[in-house]
Design a protein that fits this description.
- This protein is elongated.
- The strands form eight sheets. Strands 7-6-8-5-11-12-13-14 form an eight-stranded mixed β-sheet, with helices on both faces. A five-stranded mixed β-sheet has the order 18-25-24-20-21, with no helix packed on it.
- It contains 17 helices and 32 strands.
- The protein has five domains: 67 residues, Peptidase S8 propeptide/proteinase inhibitor I9 (Alpha-Beta Plaits, 2-Layer Sandwich); 303 residues, Peptidase S8/S53 domain (Rossmann fold, 3-Layer(aba) Sandwich); 73 residues, Immunoglobulins (Immunoglobulin-like, Sandwich), CATH 2.60.40; 86 residues, Immunoglobulin-like (Sandwich); 93 residues, no CATH class.
- Strand 31 and strand 32 form a beta hairpin.
- Helices cover 31% and strands 26% of the residues.
- The N and C termini lie far apart (141 Å).
- The chain binds calcium ion (2 copies).
Length: 717
């Protein structure tokens, strides 16, 4: 009885969906809205305008006074598209466009539309004036590689792909692809089944994603997708409420999607491990001329440093998507990357709240049909939907041209200028109206050092003959050039900047780092020991900060100290000394060296001299130590003298280490002693000579003083 009721319910639902589908198909016609037989043209040379108009057998409807535009009536029989083509070829035409019909932005009649904040943010209503998508057989097929789709969902069913080669439910593999009854897609999970029903009872992840791409629009029910009409294929490889899956099944899913003609594969999943096979699958997507759209991931990482797959796969046919919030910020969870994440799109903030993304689900046995969920998983289908809508209008575009148009038409929102390549958040209306311009997807390496080097620039619409590629407006030498790849030279001493091709698009940022090499002039000695280091720096831009870490992992700036540094270590040990330099672009690099300080051995000593000269290896300290070892320690009075000195000297040495002026004084005091030891006879002779001179000088000065002293007394009187 229960089974019968279930069957009845399903049958009833199919009937509702079928009726729904046919009525919607009638209502939705993707068209471009413009007035036939008319154009608006801007000529370069206004004086030649009337000549141009006559030559094209057109007539002038209006010449605008306040801007240099001509409203033109085309000759009978000439279509707007043909006229546009010929006008755009005319060298005197700056631009020509149809006389578009303007009306208030189209809003669908779905009951929950007012809760779908993400759609006005991406200017979807204005875009729907151009197209609302299509479910024609020729239109773009989107595969959702996910937990499957609840294909009975009343707001999705009409927009699902149905395998044309399969007779649904006859228990046979009609199309001979090895999968029985793969009607809406397929299910891969170690096994291969035809039923991709979404079994994610926690989130209905795949169903939610699919609704964002293409929940049926304007059907007076629930929500609308970015596309009101679409063709969505369910490719299930994630299973259960945890949404877990295997790499091998993801690969099978990609293969199935491509084999059945999918042009866009929505990949709202992430895996931390790099895998060559997933890269090979991405290559297959590229070779099929399809697009994959990948989630940047939900752990708040910078993908310039960390990796998440498939988002981190460097392919011109892959779009990595970060999430944007209700207030156009970067949500805390969203991964990002100035050099690695292509674009942001609405993903919302908190699952279950109004600031997350409302979409279709099948929860609580189908009693909950809509719910809000947040994540980069939700950002991806906004871009997928946009790509499908755009590609349906311009089917002759290549996959990479579709990607370029989407990246070039973003809203440049502050939160994304430093966190994405395109510098902004998806704008669907602008994407539909954008043009093919030179667009860079990737530059590698995107980080070089001051010495420069070769970079590979990948993108599209570069042109087939070498033209201009610049870094910060300065032209770069080119090694090779084609429409999608350029090899160029970054000269020595360059600075951080934006690489641009033909002066178009937002370009791609590269970082030029200074280099630093820390070398010790004195690196080892007996405690207390003063180590000296030199930082050798090479940079195209000024260095504005030197910071030193003496081995405690704390970097400090020392006033007046730049590339030369010395530090005294009181205790024995191996110290990892680091220097960190910051250039005027804010780039930082570090270098390290080790200072080895040993405990004074019983035969060590000479504490004061070591402290004064910074190291027991200093030649003058060596002379003193030699004298001690050979002349003092060899006899009893000498040994007694050394013992007495060693009782006295460590505290004094400690004090000397702390104050530079004491070190200078100590060195002055020690010098005559060293000379006496080194050159005893000469020093003695010099000393006697100096004493004689000094006494002569003093005796003369005594006389002179008594003479001169008499003078003031005289004058005062
Ligand atoms: Ca089959
Ligand atoms: Ca709806």
């Amino acid at each position: 009885m229960k089974q019968f009721a279930k069957l009845l319910l399903i049958l009833l639902m199919i009937c509702v969906i079928a009726t729904e589908a046919s009525s919607i198909a009638d209502r939705i016609t993707p068209v471009l809205h413009y007035k036939p037989g008319e154009l608006i043209v801007r000529f370069k040379d206004q004086a030649l305008a009337s000549k141009n108009i006559t030559a094209s057998k057109s007539s002038l409807l209006k010449k605008f006074k306040h801007f240099p535009l001509h409203h033109i009536k085309l000759p009978l029989g000439l279509t707007v598209q043909d006229a546009l083509a010929s006008y755009r070829k005319d060298p005197n035409v700056l631009y020509a466009e149809p006389n578009y019909i303007v009306r208030k932005a189209q809003v669908p009649g779905d009951t929950e539309f007012s809760r779908q904040w993400s759609l006005p943010i991406i200017s979807a209503p204005a875009a729907w004036d151009v197209s609302v998508g299509s479910r024609e057989k020729s239109s773009v097929l989107v595969a959702v590689l996910d937990t499957g789709i609840a294909y009975y969902h009343p707001d999705l069913a009409a927009n699902l792909w149905i395998n044309p080669g399969e007779i649904c439910g006859d228990g046979l593999d009609n199309d001979g692809n090895g999968i029985i009854d793969d009607c809406y897609g397929a299910n891969f999970g170690g096994f291969t089944l035809g039923d991709p029903w979404d079994d994610d009872t926690a989130d209905s992840h795949g169903t939610h994603v699919s609704g964002i791409i293409g929940a049926v629009g304007n059907n007076e029910l629930g929500i609308t997708g970015v596309n009101w009409a679409a063709r969505i294929m369910a490719v299930k490889f994630l299973h259960g409420p945890e949404g877990m899956g295997e790499l091998a099944d993801a690969l099978r899913g990609v293969e199935y999607a491509l084999a059945n003609g999918a042009k866009i594969i929505n990949m709202s999943f992430e895996v931390d491990e790099d895998s060559q096979s997933l890269r090979d699958a991405a290559r297959a997507v590229e070779n099929a001329g399809a697009l994959m759209i990948s989630a940047a991931g939900n752990t708040g990482k910078n993908l310039d440093i960390y990796r998440v797959y498939p988002a981190s796969i460097k392919s011109s046919n892959n779009i990595a998507v970060a999430a944007s919030s209700f207030t156009d910020g970067l949500p805390y969870y969203s991964d990002y990357g100035r050099h690695t994440v292509d674009i942001a799109a609405p993903g919302g903030s908190t699952t279950g709240s109004a600031n997350a993304i409302l979409s279709t689900v099948w929860l609580n046995s189908g009693t909950t049909l809509y719910r809000t969920t947040a994540g980069t998983s939700m950002a991806v289908p906004h871009v997928t939907g946009a790509a499908a809508l755009l590609w349906n209008i311009y089917p002759s575009l290549t996959a990479v041209q579709v990607k370029a148009r989407i990246l070039n038409s973003v809203d440049r929102v502050p939160a994304f200028t430093e966190t994405t390549i395109s510098g902004g958040r998806l704008n669907l209306e602008k994407a539909l109206k954008s043009q093919d311009i030179s667009t860079i997807f990737d530059v590698y390496p995107f980080q070089l050092n001051w010495n420069g080097g070769t970079v590979t620039v990948k993108g599209v619409n570069f042109g087939i003959t070498p033209s201009s590629i610049t870094l910060g407006g300065i032209r770069l030498p080119v090694s090779s050039w084609n429409d999608t790849e350029i090899s160029a030279q970054i000269p020595q001493n360059s600075s951080n900047g934006i690489i641009q091709v033909n002066g178009q698009g937002s370009g791609f940022p590269i970082t030029v780092l200074p280099t630093v090499k820390l070398t010790p002039s004195t690196a080892s000695g007996t405690a207390p020991f003063t180590a000296e280091f030199n930082a050798e720096v090479l940079s195209g831009v000024p260095i504005i900060k030197y910071e030193w870490d003496t081995g405690d992992n704390v970097f400090k700036e020392y006033q007046g100290i730049t590339s030369n540094f010395s530090h005294t270590f009181d205790a024995a040990g191996a110290y990892n000394v680091n220097v960190r330099i910051t250039d005027s672009n804010g780039n930082t690099v570090t270098s390290s060296a080790t200072a080895t300080v040993s405990t004074p051995s019983s035969g060590g000593g000479c504490f004061i001299a070591t402290a004064a000269y910074g190291s027991y290896l200093h030649p003058k300290v060596q002379i003193l130590r030699n004298f001690r070892d050979k002349s003092l320690l060899t006899n009893r009075p000498g040994r007694a003298c050394v013992r007495f000195y060693y009782q006295l000297s460590p505290p004094v040495a400690h004090l000397i280490v702390k104050y530079e002026f004491l070190r200078v004084i100590s060195r002055w005091a020690i010098t005559p002693l060293v000379l006496l030891i080194q050159y005893p006879f000469m020093t003695l002779a010099l000393f006697i000579l100096f004493s004689i001179c000094w006494s002569v000088f003093l005796s003369q000065r005594t006389n002179a003083c008594s003479d001169s002293a008499a003078i003031p007394y005289d004058s005062n009187n």
